[in-house]
Amino acid sequence: MARIVGVITTSHVPAIGNAIARGLQEEPYWKPFFDGFPPVHRWIAREKPDVAVIFSNDHGLNFFLDKLPTFAIGAANEYRNEDEGWGIPVSHAAKGNAALSWHIINDVVNDGFDITMCQDMLVDHAVTIPLQLMWPAGDWPAIVPVSINTVQHPLPSMARCYELGRSVGRALASYPEDIKVMVIGTGGLSHQLDGKRAGFINREFDVHCMDQLVADPESLTRYSIPQVVELAGAQGVEFLNWMAMRGALTGAVTELHRNYHIPISNTAAATVLFENRPRAERRKAA
Ligand SMILES: [Fe+2]
User: Fold this and answer.
1) 8 with 56: CB under 8 angstroms?
2) How buried is 137 (Cβ within 10 angstroms: 0-12 exposed, 13-18 middle, 19+ buried)?
3) Could you point out which of 37, 54, 228, 268 has its C-alpha 20 to 30 Å from the C-alpha of 47?
4) Short-list 217, 213, 2, 239, CA closest to 107
5) Is 125 annotated as catalytic?
6) Residue 223 contacts residue 231 (beta carbons within 8 Å)
7) Which of 191, 208, 257, 261 is an active site residue?
């Protein structure tokens, strides 16, 4: 069966892509953010995941406001990136794993999620920047992209995204092939790009959310979308990707690493690494 070894989350601000392209990682502005990644690189080198399931939101490259699925899952063996207009170099394509994608799609539909299945899907900076941050040499694993609408209201609830993640986690647990999977959640944390509260950041709420992801993730499902907008900013709702990511963890979860830095562009940037150990294995070790 597929085994989820852990999850990594990161912000995906387009400016990060520019910083990578221009080699600015050691500049004073960027260093505190990029310094969050060596522990992530060491963990990936140790665990060597075969596949990354990525929860993120599309920003108009693949879906736009005229047609925006609440949940979409890629079912392709390759995912291309294209010019999004941010001035970021177009990245090379990501490999897919269509067989695993279809297995997940079948299971989550059986669980009651009405998924848009995409045999042709572009991936934008919300996928390519996290991959570049986590595998700077470009040796990305195969991916299964899961796109969540965080753009056009009504958005799916925190509870619904958490449940989607749980369904994906169960699907992975029943996949017959013996592969190592890591889960990635991208976006956030608190930020608001426009309106009267443009530049809004809420460190206290961000830290609370990161703490609760380990201690009591279900407590976060009580926040309504208007409450998340109020507490995290209009674009801070990208935390929905983190909720789905956390839901996928079915084992004993330990936080191995956290880096929180304000600001990157006008965003509270966070990188978190959780390890996921089967409960039986953990009991044996204790
Ligand atoms: Fe975003």
Assistant:
1) no
2) exposed
3) 268
4) 2
5) yes
6) yes
7) 191
Separation of CA 155 and ligand 1 centre (Å): 15
pLDDT in tens, 60-82: 999 999 999 999 999 999 999 99
Q: Tokens 């039986």 — which residue?
A: 280
Contact 277, 251 (CB under 8 A): yes
Task: State pLDDT tens for residues 138-168.
Answer: 999 999 999 999 999 999 999 999 999 999 9
Distance 68 CA to ligand 1 centre (A): 15
Strands 116-118, 71-74: pairing kind: parallel
Q: Ligand 1 mean position to 187 CA, how many Å? A: 5
CA dist 229 and 179 (Å) reads 37
Pairing of strands 267-277, 3-10: antiparallel
Q: Name the pLDDT band for 286 (thresholds 50, 70, 90).
A: very low
Query: Could you report the per-residue pLDDT of 176-189, keeping only the tens digit for each?
Result: 999 999 999 999 99
